[in-house]
Amino acid sequence: MFKKTIVSIATFFMLIANASAVDFSGKTVEWLIPFSPGGGSDKWSRYYAPMLSKALPGNPNVVVNNCPGGGSTTCANKFASMKNGDGLTIFGDSGSTKFPYLLDDKRVKYDYTKWYKTVVLATPTGGVAYTSPKFYKSKADFKKLQGTPLKFGSNGATSLDLIPLLAFEMLGLQVKPVFGMKGRGPSRVAFERGETTIDYQTTSAFKSKVMPLVKDGKAIPLFTWGVVDSNGKIVRDPTFPKIPHWAEYYESVMGKKPGGPAFRVWKSFLTAGFSSQKMVFLPTGTKPEIVNAYRQAFIKVTKSSDFKKSRNKRLGVYDQVTGSGVEGILKGAMTVNASDKAWLKDFVGKKYGVKF
């Protein structure tokens, strides 16, 4: 036991030494984001990029490159094919990248199990659903909302939009999804133009882009998705403590607690899609010292005064996961009950015509 402890300590200091030997001076790091500009993932990466530049050895220029398509699978496939381990390309995923993988989407050519050793950051987030004030002001108008045909701009039925699609379905809302959106940003723009009537955004985009609409009376928040706590209970999103979470809203308007396979699956995918919603990866085969340099850089970022001052406003009140612990977060997100997975694939297939 004593010898193992000595080896572990030696390994730790060796990694620190190797990380300090990494130097990106004069280089440019390309951060691939598989969605269009304006959405939550875009806002998240552009918030982190300048701080990451300062924290990485040699202070390389970190440039965000939006590469939308296939509900994020096109860019993820491109990234998965990369074999360069020089640390100059990183990839930011989202729940919309994880869900197609979990559901065996035929477009997926990437394998998360090969990314366990190269994940360097996990960012939990939340989401807020909202609708038009033309026919909804408060929960007293729920029956009116329930009886109104609604349009929802969606990335796709196997994307992160599974969460709202299931939520709307359980509430009995007449929602017609308009598939093919290149990200949550274009979906929000469609709502602003009046082309859709119900929408949701993840925390960063809701705070920066939708809150002004709420203040101007152009959007009415319905509910958040909530947060699954350590006891497996859904609680209010700490970033939006005044807005009820979905299960809370459901009980108030439906007169009963949510239950059944749809709710069980919804909760399971809520955990996978939001507790580890956005993550940063290096290509498979990247040298351990480079992976460690990135992990150390993100630790440095999250401990910086700039980050502490701006985090709540830009990302919400969620703890960022860095260091070696991020591997366990990813493994947990990739574990979904087989029966839940089978039920959801059947539902999505019958409801939206998705073929697996």
Q: How would you portray this structure in words?
A:
The protein has 356 residues and is an alpha/beta fold. The protein is globular and about 65 Å long. The strands form four sheets. It has a five-stranded mixed sheet, sandwiched between helices. Helix 2 (40-55) links the parallel strand 1 (28-33) and strand 2 (61-66). The protein folds into two domains: 2-123 and 275-333, D-Maltodextrin-Binding Protein, domain 2 (3-Layer(aba) Sandwich), CATH 3.40.190; 127-273, D-Maltodextrin-Binding Protein, domain 2. It is built from 14 helices and twelve strands.
* Largest sheet composition: 5 strands, mixed
Strand content: 15-25%
Integer average pLDDT: 91
SSE pattern: HEHEHEHEEHEHEHEHEEEHHEHHHH
CATH architecture of the largest domain: 3-Layer(aba) Sandwich
Taking Cα atoms only, what radius of gyration do you get, to the nearest Å? 21 Å
Structural class: alpha/beta
What gap, in angstroms, lies between the N and C termini?
Answer: 49 Å
Could you name the CATH class of the largest domain? Alpha Beta
Helix content: 40-55%
Unreliable runs: 1-8, 10-19
CATH topology of the largest domain: D-Maltodextrin-Binding Protein, domain 2
Could you say how many structural domains there are in total?
2
In short, what is this structure?
The chain is 45% helix and 15% strand. It has 356 residues and is an alpha/beta fold.
